[in-house]
Give the backbone structure.
Amino acid sequence: MGYKFQDSTAKYTATWTSSTALNSALPVYGWGYSTAIITIQATGTISAGVINFQGYDGQNWYNLTATDLYAGAKTQTYSLASGSAALACDMTGFSQFQVQLTTAITGSGSVQININESGAAVSSLVAGGSGTYVSTANTPAIISTATALNANSNRKGWQIQNVGTNPLFVLLGSGASTTVFHAVLKGGSANSDGLGGSMGQSEGVIYTGEITTAGTSPLYVVMEL
């Protein structure tokens, strides 16, 4: 059985700033999936801004509860002033899912919202549904080390995004180089502009070994579930 990877960029993505209109939304289609995985990558200064999570049954939108995959806490809203985050939301039975901006953003920074669908239930990402995460989920930060993730047998998903301007070479294993790699993630036009390539897994057979990177002045963010 082979590995099932996400697309090289998040399936649904939007970058919001103080210019983004109140109640703007990033919608996705939910049929055939049980979970929406939402990653939030904040850069610069964000002093206010709140999002919520909604499911659509064909007639009405309903507020849903998301699980913070770093802390295990459940929430119906998320403050963008809290910085980067990874959350999962059960969207079983809903034809659409969306993240909506319910309090306008203030500050000079920007927030990239990424959504990928998964066939895995939220409960499979949180041990026994108790709110204690089974993996050693990493703290979000921009890093440049050669090792993106150490091997972790409890890993339920992962994603890496290039936030630099140069190509990022990624190897599922140790010893990535510009000639030994599994994927090349394109750089953006400027650091952390949201245009850099990404790759990851959140369903199927999940790779649990070491992940390494290489490149010229690499900059990237990595999420482990």
